[in-house]
TrEMBL record:
SUPFAM superfamilies: ATPase domain of HSP90 chaperone/DNA topoisomerase II/histidine kinase (SSF55874), GAF domain-like (SSF55781), Homodimeric domain of signal transducing histidine kinase (SSF47384). PROSITE patterns: CHASE, HIS_KIN. It is found in: Membrane. It catalyses: ATP + protein L-histidine = ADP + protein N-phospho-L-histidine. This is histidine kinase. The keyword Transmembrane applies. Residues 519-734 form the Histidine kinase domain. InterPro entries: CHASE_dom, CHASE_sf, GAF-like_dom_sf, HATPase_C_sf, HATPase_dom, His_kinase_dom, HisK_dim/P_dom, HisK_dim/P_sf. Residues 86-290 form the CHASE domain. Keywords: Kinase, Membrane, Phosphoprotein, Transferase, Transmembrane, Transmembrane helix, Two-component regulatory system. Its EC number is 2.7.13.3. The lineage of its organism: Bacteria, Pseudomonadati, Myxococcota, Myxococcia, Myxococcales.
């Protein structure tokens, strides 16, 4: 069989630490990659949203300009002649270009001219008040155009009046497409004639041809057009999107040709981390929009999150490494402490299982000998001699130790030299206080190799009870943890022994009390019987002689004799029930008739208390019960009702249903609080002060015990000031239940 590989503890500790560090670094790197990917995805999504919104803003703005030119062309076509200066101005002002069409340079009208029509056109415009008006640039051309109206006519737009846009190839191409297609067409990149100074921008124009006859290019009258400065246009279009750290470049065409660059923010880095291109149609042409994220696109949080993840991961790795190192070092100590804690828990459980410490201390000794030391010896000083409980891993050695201790006897004075706390470990030769170390005991200890002892005294409330001793060989050392364990075990064992002895004494006192009450009850019963007969005779004599004074006194004597008789009977029942000697004689009983007898017997007492007794028993309720005990139950309940509800009616109800019979007594007295309703059925318990109401507090306890002995149950429904209803439920055939002795712990020592 191959031998098991043994890994030294030092190697295990280092391997665990290395595994924690490696795992922490791997998790840190994984978390960093995950966070970085998440940040990258978040930035890309935000960048995509900005690009989409910006593209839509430019596209929608150009579509609005195109629709505006179509509407303007329709208005001019409806005139069926070129617009006059005043008409054009009014129309342009109604459009509110700067408010509704921001970014546009202006709205203009350019007339189409043949070479022969140019002089007449110039003359007409000069005659209309435009001194110096001319069509320019000069030169012979087969076809001319001239900007006649341009609104608003500011200094920049005024520079364009009379300009022949058809003379410039790029503009001419767009104007011809507009004439031929009948739709709005955009020019390529140009520099507007309005540009002046250093702040020059690239521009473009939108054209809508006005034809005299729809669909006939030969009937060309002129063009409605709109010039644009590209940068102003893009800036105004992107205002609705907001400012973002994103650079935008716009090209005329589907490719990023620098020669066709219309607009560029000029901030894009040479090697951007992210860039997107979008193409949009603009009046018959295609524009390329190139978006580039600037270095400041990432937020401060996004820039800080990946390095923060690494820093946090390294910090947690260092913390886990420190915790692991500490845990590995403490693991051995913790395992030892756990074993000792388990021992104390087992010892506590064994001691709590019974009050007979003869058995429980033996279990604790065997438990200690198996888990803590090689041997455990427990001595309890008893009046009739010491009680030794000895345990060893080897049962034969345990028997030899027990024999040696029995022969050695005890010297109680040895307990006085033991420290009451912090017991000390004594290396050999071992001794077992309070036993003297006789030669025979020394031989047994030496033969078992027991050379190290750890002893502590058992004591409670200043009384020496004995001692506990752990014994071990040289190979098994006992340390400070074992000393603390012995100290804890001594406290548990001393408390168990002291509790058992106190319980035994309490049981003996209760037994003596019960014996006295039983004897006293029997001794009082005989003179009370004679006294009752004499009081009845005296009452009868007083009534015959019609002596009211004597009759009142005889009545008082009889009532007190009856009360004393009931008290003595209660004491006698207390002793019988406590001793478990409550005897029941079952017979067929009509509960309704029995209730009627008791109610009639209580008539005089109820009258004196001002209580009206009302019996509700419509039909016989037959069952097999003890007649005298049921009489006692109803008597006690009626006595309580009259006592606590004087001057108010008391109802007694008897009913039967199926196999159950019910007896209810309802008064309108002071009532019982919910907190007191459970305890009033216990022995010597009362819900009111004994100064105001007499009695021992036994009546309801006797009622409960009798009812439970008959297999039934008794309960109460009450509230303070609202009276009380006592409900007795019985089986028709009594299910006799054993009457337990007065509460005794199941494990109490029978000594």
């Amino acid at each position: 069989m191959p031998s098991t590989l043994h890994i030294p503890a030092r190697v295990r500790r280092h391997a665990a630490l290395a595994a924690v560090v490696a795992t922490g670094l791997a998790v840190t790197i994984g978390a960093w990659l995950f966070v970085r990917a998440g940040v990258e995805a978040q930035q890309q999504a935000r960048f995509g949203e900005i690009v989409s919104a910006s593209t839509a803003a430019v596209r929608d703005r150009m579509e609005a300009y195109t629709q505006m030119l179509r509407a303007t062309r329709a208005a001019v076509t409806a005139l069926e002649r070129p617009p006059a200066a005043r008409e054009f101005q009014v129309y342009a002002e109604s459009l509110a270009l700067q408010d509704h069409y921001p970014g546009i340079q202006g709205l203009g009208w350019a007339v189409a001219l043949s070479p022969r029509a140019v002089p007449a056109h110039e003359a007409a415009e000069r005659a209309a008040g435009r001194d110096g008006y001319r069509v320019w640039p000069e030169g012979d051309r087969p076809f001319y155009s001239a900007i006649v109206h341009l609104y608003p006519l500011d200094w920049r737009n005024a520079r364009a009046i009379g300009f022949d846009m058809y003379s410039e190839p790029i503009r001419r191409a767009a104007m011809e497409r507009a004439r031929n297609t009948g739709d709005v067409e955009a020019s390529g990149k140009v520099e507007l004639v309005q540009e002046a100074g250093a702040e020059r921008q690239a521009g473009f124009l939108l054209y809508a041809a006005v034809l005299a006859r729809k669909g006939d290019p030969a009937s060309l009258v002129g063009w409605m057009y709109a010039p644009f400065r590209a940068t102003d246009l893009v800036a105004s279009a992107l205002e609705s999107v907001g400012r973002h750290p994103v650079s935008v470049a716009v090209y005329d065409g589907a490719k990023p040709d620098p020669a066709q660059l219309l607009h560029d923010d000029g901030d894009a880095p040479d090697r951007p981390r992210r860039a997107l291109e979008r193409r949009i149609p603009v009046a018959g042409r295609t524009w390329l929009l190139r978006f580039t994220a600037l270095p400041g696109f990432a937020t401060r949080t996004e820039r800080a999150l990946p390095p923060a993840t690494i820093a946090l991961g390294l910090a947690l790795t260092a913390l886990l490494a420190w915790i692991t190192r500490t845990e590995v070092r403490a693991r051995g100590r913790a395992e030892q402490a756990a074993r000792r804690t388990a021992f104390l828990a087992g010892a506590g459980k064994a001691l709590a299982a019974s009050l007979d410490y003869d058995r429980t201390l033996g279990r604790v000794a065997r438990l200690a000998a198996g888990r803590v030391a090689d041997a455990c010896l427990i001595c309890v000083l008893e009046p009739d001699g010491p009680l030794w409980r000895v345990a060893h891993r080897d049962p034969a050695t345990a028997r030899r130790l027990a024999d040696g201790l029995a022969a050695a006897g005890v010297e109680p004075a040895k307990l006085a030299v033991l420290p009451a706390s912090h017991p000390r470990i004594r290396p050999g030769p071992a001794s077992v206080p309070p036993a003297p170390t006789t030669p025979e005991l020394a031989r047994v200890l030496a033969g078992a190799g027991l050379e190290v002892a750890l002893s502590a005294p058992l004591g409670a409330r200043g009384e020496a009870l004995g001692a506990v001793t752990f014994l071990a060989t040289r190979a098994r050392t006992l340390g400070r943890a074992d000393a603390a364990l012995v100290e804890d075990l001594v406290r548990l064992a001393a408390a168990a022994v002291d509790t058992a002895r106190l319980y035994r004494r309490a049981q003996e006192a209760v037994h003596a009390r019960d014996e006295f009450l039983s004897i006293a009850s029997h001794e009082l019963k005989t003179p009370l019987t004679s006294l009752a007969l004499q009081s009845e005779s005296l009452l009868a004599t007083a009534r015959r002689e019609r002596s009211e004074s004597l009759e009142r006194k005889a009545e008082v004597v009889r009532r007190n004799v009856d009360r004393l008789t009931r008290l003595v009977a209660s004491l006698l029942d207390l002793t019988r029930i406590t001793a478990g000697r409550l005897e029941l004689e079952l017979e067929d009983v009509d509960l309704a008739a029995l209730a009627a007898d008791v109610v009639e017997r209580f008539g005089d007492e109820a009258t004196r208390a001002g209580c009206a007794l009302r019996l509700h028993a419509p039909e016989p309720v037959i069952g097999r019960w003890d007649r005298l005990r049921l009489d006692q139950v109803l008597t006690n309940l009626l006595s309580n009702a009259v006592k606590y509800g004087p001057g108010r009616p008391v109802d007694v109800r008897v009913s039967g249903e199926g196999r159950r019979a019910t007896l209810a007594v309802e008064d309108r007295g002071i009532g019982v609080s919910e907190a007191d309703q459970r305890r009033i059925f216990d022995r010597f318990e009362r819900a009111v002060s004994k100064r105001n109401y007499g009695g021992f507090g036994l009546g309801l306890w006797i009622v409960r015990r009798i009812v439970e002995a008959l297999g039934g149950r008794v309960s109460i429904e009450s509230a303070p000031g609202a009276g009380a209803t006592f409900l007795v439920e019985l089986p028709r055939v009594a299910e006799l239940a054993p009457v337990p002795r007065a509460e005794q712990h199941p494990g109490a020592p029978a000594r």
